[in-house]
Amino acid sequence: MNPIHQSYVEQHIALAQRVSAELLPKINEVGNLLCESFGRGGRLLTFGNGGSAADAMHLAEEMIGKFLRTRRPLPATALCADGPAMSCIANDFGYAEVFARQVLALARPGDVVFGISTSGNSPNVLRGLGAGKGKSAVTVALLGRDGGKAASLADHAIIVPGNVTSLVQEMHVMIVHLLCDIVDRWAAGAK
């Protein structure tokens, strides 16, 4: 194997081990709060940019579809998936407002507003989380590095302790899958 590739794989494994050792309790806490929100009739609103947008869409669509178990669809929307809304809001109010405007229009008290950012400093993600707090939603941020500004803004922050964006994003996918499994088990009544 190419030594550069070997190093990357080793870094991936080391970061996954840290996530397992350090973040599983927080991941379980966030998974349980998603279940509680859905159980009370709440919904999930997700968003992010680039690869984080893909992760936000993945999380929302797994809630509507299924992860590993057939179960009822759960109300979830990836705000970043609506191209016309994104471009309309960006054109009229600026790109930093795209998620905040949608959250202000859609979030209700008790919903979960879930922002994903590898840096934790994306202005539109920060404003989206702030709008969620203003609507009395529970705010969750899935982050990397030191968590950035979003770490202190969100009610719950899951911070992957890595500085390489691609590695952080790989861990975000794993965390999304763990959250999906928690919710899937709950919604299907599995133990």
Structure report:
By secondary structure, the chain is an alpha/beta fold. 58% of the residues lie in helices and 13% in strands. Strands 2-1-3-4-5 form a 5-stranded parallel β-sheet, with helices on both faces.
Strands, helices and their partners?
Layout: H1 3-39, E1 44-48, H2 51-64, E2 76-78, H3 83-93, H4 98-106, E3 112-117, H5 123-134, E4 138-143, H6 150-153, E5 156-159, H7 165-188
Parallel strand pairs: 1-2, 1-3, 3-4, 4-5
The appropriate CATH architecture is 3-Layer(aba) Sandwich
Strand order of the largest sheet: 2-1-3-4-5
Number of domains: 1
Please mark out the parts with pLDDT under 50 across 5 or more consecutive residues, or reply none.
none
Helix content: 55-70%
Q: Note the gap between the termini.
A: 41 Å
How much is the radius of gyration in Å? 16 Å
Shape: globular
How many distinct helices?
Answer: 7
Please report which band the strand proportion falls in: under 5%, 5-15%, 15-25%, 25-35%, 35-45% or over 45%.
Answer: 5-15%
Say which CATH homologous superfamily is assigned: Glucose-6-phosphate isomerase like protein, domain 1
Largest sheet: 5 strands, parallel
Just give the CATH class: Alpha Beta
